[in-house]
Structure formats: structure tokens, C-alpha cells
Amino acid sequence: MTKRLFRLLRSLLILMALVVVTLIVARAWDSQRGPPLEVWHTHVPDDMQASQIDKADWTGYLKAEEAVFRDVRAEVVDKVEAQANALGNRYYAGSPIYPGKFAQDWNRSYILEPDGAPIGAVVLLHGLTDSPFSLRHIARRYRDLGFVAVAIRMPAHGTVPAALTTVEWEDWDAATRLAVREAVRRAGPSKPLHIVGFSNGGALALKYALDAIEDARLARPDRLILISPMIGITSFARFVGIAALPALLPAFAKAAWLGIVPEFNPFKYNSFPINGARQTHRLTTALQERIARSARTGALDRLPPVLTFQSVVDFTVSTPAILSALYAHLPANGSELVLFDLNRAAIVGPLMRNAADTVLTRILADPPRRFRTTIVTNVAADTYDVAEQVTEAGATAEQTRLLGLAFPPGIFSLSHIALPFPMNDSLYGMEPDKTQAEFFGVHLGAIAPRGERGVLILNLDALLRVSSNPFFPYLLERIDQAIASPRR
Question: What is the pLDDT along the chain (488 residues), one digit of tens a residue?
Fold first, then answer.
């Protein structure tokens, strides 16, 4: 019996090995398709790592950042020649979207100071493949209300996508701590401290707040604002590193990438290396473990109120994970979840998947809940006008308030990337303000192309995804209320 069992196990192991080898060979073959790697996919600038960041101050961080951008200019930009599609390449110095020619390069870290002495400080953490550009509207709002706003460029961002091939999430964690240190230094330790995190930055904001509960050396925030936070992602990311194994051989270097795409966005990478997905999986796994442990020990009772803005449908992060891995554990501490619903009056209604009709009931448990719940949805099924439907913490009754806002025709939902951008954002807005002093060479959010395949340098999916938020004034209104709320 033992011999038979041994032979069976050996056969299973051989079979599994054959399957793995077959998958790796198939991945190696598949990676050879598509465009070749360019210099921005191969040159890795020498960005600061966690051990260095923890010893640095803001001045030192900016000095190192400047050196990284000089390196990218010398090793990438200066080596890109005028060629086909060069005008649509952010790394071609002659392109209208080259960030180095703008009045301000929003790929870099920045600080916005109020006119007088700051009444508080806010730290703004951008998302993966993103840059500090994405939170500049919210940073300006805080600045106008008297806060000093510190927006840090996360290591491996704002430069070249190749930088993401070697970064580790601990580097971003250290950068978060540095940004908080600088914010507290500028405003003073007795002033309110807020942290705003978008996407991957939302995970970092929450991770920092949990660390600060246990580490007295870290300043504790008074409020967390999370926008499309990356609390959970697809389980596929757990195994994504296997797909990069063929890249150990130089001939299959492209296997280290999930996507090799033209870089037509001046403030966000389009190409995406496998290591980026791997690091987000490591971060969200560590975060979920920390949340669960803090819930068991009662440490979550000391977490500041969390205000989260999230689209009910999100292709990048898991909306259900926000509820199951975070809000299900939160105490009754004044936290709130704001959900932007599908456009129930969309003319494409017959083309929606059946699951769209029940998405809210599937992810949201029946009240009462320990947190305030707000749903921004159509007033009626035949109108684009929206209202907020509020269920207070501990209550079962729902209160409705008209917002004086509406879904634009043609939009059937918001998206992961849309929430922090107003409709008049020069780059991402559907209705860009052409009189703005800011112009970044292209109005990506306003492009609604119709034509034949194979003409544009980009995939039409990138233009179909809505990139600005028709309810951004409401988002700012709710942030204003959070700023005005008494400190805990």
C-alpha cells in the first residue's frame, strides 16, 4: 500500500511539474508577441530604498529625486529620437506631452502652503503607476482651507515604467512615513493631521494609521480619506510572479511585463511590469493581516474615522474587499462609506451584464451597520439626476437628499481612475476647461473617437474608460465636512 501511494504521489508530482513547465514555455512563447522593449522599459533609475528613506528628511528626498530625473533625462529622453509616433511619446523631448516642458512637472513631489499659518496638515498618497498629479485638486482644496499639503512621489513613479521592475512596497511604506514627518514638521504636532490615499495610496494610508497605533514614534492621523482604495485585488496576483520566470533568460525579457503599451500619458505609466502586481499583492496581503490582527486585539478602536469613496464597479481593485476586509472590522468610530452606483438610466442598459442590477445588494449587507453608508444613485430609473441615500450608523431607515448633479449622457458607471478628477480637468476631464493655464498637450478625457481599428497608437479601451468624476463637487463637499469635523 505504501509503495502504491508513493508511486501515486510521484506521478502527481511529475504531472504537476510537466504542467508548470508547459505553462512557463507557453508564457515564454506568448511574451514574444507585441512591440519590443524600449529604453524606458529597460533603464532602471537609482531611486531611494526604504532603509535610505527612513534616514532622510524632505530636503534629502527632493535632492535624490532631482538626481533620478536628471538620470532619466540623460539615459532615456536624450536618447529618444524623432520617429514614428514620437509626438505621442512622453519621453520624446519634442513631444507636446513631454512633462519637462510644462510650467510644473506634476510627476515630482510638491508641497502647497496656505497663505497664513497652517491650521493643519494633509499628506496625499497617489496610486500605482501614477504620480502626485492625480491628487492635486484635493491638495489645492486643503491648501485653500488653511492646510499645508504634502504630496510625495512614491519611489519608482513619475520617471520610467522600468523603475517598477525592482521596487518593493516597503519603499512606498517608508516614503509615507517621510511625508508624514514633513507634514507634521511644517504644521506643528498639535495641529490636525489628515491622510488622503488614492488606490494603492489608500492601502498605504491605512497601513500607516495602523502602524501609528502601535508605534508611539509615528504621528497619529485624525482622519483618513480613501479614494478607490486598494484593500484587495484579484487572487491571480498571488501567482503572477510565475509568469515572469522566462524573463530570467535575456531572450525572454518581455515576459517580465503584463503590458507593453505606448507611453502617451504625461503623468501615468501605461506599460505595467509583473513586479508592480506582485508588490501590490504583497502590500494588500500584509494590510489585510494587520487589519484582522488589530480587530482581534481591539487596536482598531483607536483608528481614526475613515471616509471612503468607491465606485460599486471597479476593474482595478475589489469593491467587496473594502467591505469584507475593512469596514466589517471597523468599530462605531464615525467612519463612512460613499458608494457611487451605476447609472440606472443609461441608454446602454440592455447591454449591461445581468450582475449589474444586483451589484449593490451583493456587496452591501442589510442595515444596521456600524458605519454610515451613502449611496449616490439615480433619483429614478428614467432620469440622470442623482441623490444621496444615507443610512446612519446603527440605523435602518434611509434618508434621501437631492444633489443637483447628474450622470452625463453616455456614462454607464464611474471607474477606478475617475474619482479624484473634476470634469474640467485639463488632462482627464470630459469637459476640459480650455481657458486653464494648465495644458498638458492633450485632452485625454475628452477624446471620444469613432473610426477604424489600427489607426490610433493606443487601445480604444483606454479611451472608453471614464476618467473624470461628474460628482467631484460632492466629493469635495464631503471632504470639507471631514475637515470641519471635531478632532477625536
Answer: 577 777 777 777 776 666 555 555 554 445 556 678 999 999 999 999 999 999 999 999 999 999 999 999 999 999 998 775 688 899 999 999 999 999 999 999 999 999 999 999 999 999 999 999 999 999 999 999 999 999 999 999 999 999 999 999 999 999 999 999 999 999 999 999 999 999 999 999 999 999 999 999 999 999 999 999 999 876 655 556 566 666 656 666 688 898 899 999 999 999 999 999 999 999 999 999 999 999 999 999 999 999 999 999 998 888 999 999 999 999 999 999 999 999 988 876 677 677 777 788 888 989 999 999 999 999 998 899 999 999 999 999 999 999 999 999 889 999 999 999 999 999 999 999 877 778 999 999 988 766 666 666 666 666 678 999 999 999 999 999 999 988 76
**69, three cell numbers:** 530625473
Residue 410 has a CB neighbour count (10 Å cut-off) of 12
* Closest among 317, 342, 302, 348 to 416, alpha carbons compared: 317
Q: Which residues pair with 387 in a beta bridge?
A: 377, 402
Amino acid at 377: T
Cell numbers that stand for 235 in this block: 487572487
Please tell me the distance from the alpha carbon of residue 346 to that of residue 352, in angstroms, as a whole number.
Answer: 9
Q: Is 296 left (phi over 0), alpha (psi -120 to 50) or beta?
A: alpha
Query: What's the angle, vertex CA 305, arms to CA 303 and CA 309, rounded to 5?
Result: 125
Task: Record the cell numbers describing residue 109, joined without a space.
Answer: 513631489
C-alpha–C-alpha distance, residues 372 and 307, integer Å: 9
CB-based contacts of 222: which residues, under 8 Å, 6+ apart? 192, 193, 194, 304, 487, 488
CA separation for the pair 20, 242 (Å, rounded): 9
Q: What is d(CA 131, CA 153) in angstroms, rounded to the nearest whole number?
A: 6
Q: Which three cell numbers stand for residue 107?
A: 510627476
Question: Under a CB-based contact definition with an 8 Å cutoff, are residues 471 and 405 in contact?
Answer: yes
Task: Report residue 431 as a C-alpha cell.
Answer: 469637459
272 within 8 A of 130, measured Cβ to Cβ: no
Count the Cβ atoms, other than its own, within 10 Å of residue 132: 25
Q: What is residue 273's DSSP assignment?
A: E
Distance of CA 300 to the CA centre of its chain: 24
39 C-beta neighbours (distance < 10 Å), count = 15
CA distance readout (Å), 84 to 88, 114, 262: 9, 45, 12
pTM value is: 0.92
Cell of 190: 498639535
Distance, in Å, from the CA atom of 471 to the CA atom of 377, rounded to the nearest integer, reads 11
The grid cell for 454 is: 489600427
d(Cα 318, Cα 326) in Å, to the nearest integer? 12
